[in-house]
Amino acid sequence: MSTQRALVTGASRGIGRAIATRLLEGGGVVAATGRSLDALREIEREFPGRAHALRMDVRDRAQVDAAVAAAAGALGGFDLVVNNAGIAGHTPIDDASDDRWLDILATNLTGAMRVTRAALPHVPRGGRIVNVSSVLGKFGVSRMGAYCASKHGLIGWTRALALELAPRDIAVNAICPGWVETDMATLGVVETAASLGKTPEEFRREAIDAVPQKRFLDPSEVAGLVVYLASPEARAVTGQAISICAGQTTF
Ligand code: NDP
Predict the structure, then answer these.
(1) Residue 85 alpha carbon, nearest atom of ligand 1
(2) Closest ligand 1 atom to the C-alpha of 56?
(3) What is the C-alpha separation between 243 and 58, in angstroms, rounded?
């Protein structure tokens, strides 16, 4: 199986950008998607002819269907689909508005399903789907209800879809990073610190101290796991939720 042709969501920065870059450095062709077209065009310029920048808001079904069809046309199909686009944020239960809850679920969970549904007709036997969940798909964190629900949901959906697609020899897995140095982590530290009445520096020190390896991950480490899951050696790995978290959880 070739893993040359990949569709990556949320490729404009952070983990998604690291995944897209690693795949391109490995000789692949990548449809790099997201909402910030300017950032995606930088990847296109870095890897001319092999990176294709496409605007795709995963909350918008029509945009997903159109962008995935355009990407399939440009790449000739997908050996790998990486559902990485995601947002976080606090959703305390006494928040009277549904807006943030709905936005997080639409992006992190429904978005992944819609992208995969649109992509699957273009995924041959031997293809791979990787869903970027989180360690918060395995345990809860106070005030992070929507995010935890979306990431737990992504793991449940991964398990079901892996069984549904096994007869087509398409492997489906979730990966569950702990803290990774990205904009999302920076914002998460700031928001949580504020909710606890601490400074961001104070809370960041505590967060690092709670990680057994005493560090946040680099996005490239997560990209390396995706490359493994896309490799021929990983064909039998399906329906799993694999933590990559410096010891934050051991399951
Ligand atoms: P960033 O905030 O740095 O990047 C998020 C990416 O998702 C951006 O490329 C953004 O692109 C894209 N995105 C957000 N909303 C949408 C949308 N509606 N449609 C399309 N793209 C969207 O976060 P990370 O790189 O840290 O996160 C990537 C994934 O990893 C997420 O699913 C996150 O939950 C998960 N994760 C992150 C951890 C961390 O500590 N950083 C830990 C565990 C999991 P744009 O704004 O251009 O649309």
Answers:
(1) 7
(2) 20
(3) 24
> Which helix (H) or strand (E) segment is 189 a member of?
helix 183-196
pLDDT digits (tens, 9 = 90+) for 51-86: 999 999 999 999 999 999 999 999 999 999 999 999
137 lines ligand 1 (CB under 6 A): no
Q: Which two structure tokens, joined as six digits, stand for 89?
A: 């944020």
Q: Which residues are catalytic?
A: 147
Which residue's CA is the closest to the ligand 1 atom numbered 19? 57
| Ligand 1 pocket residue status of 203, Cβ below 6 Å | no
Q: What is the pTM for the complete model shown?
A: 0.98
What's the length of the chain?
251
Residue 31, SS3 per DSSP: strand
- pLDDT tens per residue across span 126-145: 999 999 999 999 999 999 99
- pLDDT at site 195: 95
User: Given the CA of residue 188, which atom of ligand 1 is nearest to it?
Assistant: 40
Q: Is the pLDDT of residue 43 over 50?
A: yes
Q: Which residues, other chains included, contact 80 with Cβ-Cβ below 8 Å and sequence gap of 6+? A: 3, 5, 6, 7, 23, 127, 128, 129, 130, 226, 230
Question: What percent of the chain clears pLDDT 90, i.e. is strictly above it?
Answer: 98
Predicted local distance difference test score (pLDDT) of residue 49: 95
Q: Which residues pair with 52 in a beta bridge?
A: 31
Q: How far is the CA of 183 from the centre of ligand 1 (A)?
A: 8
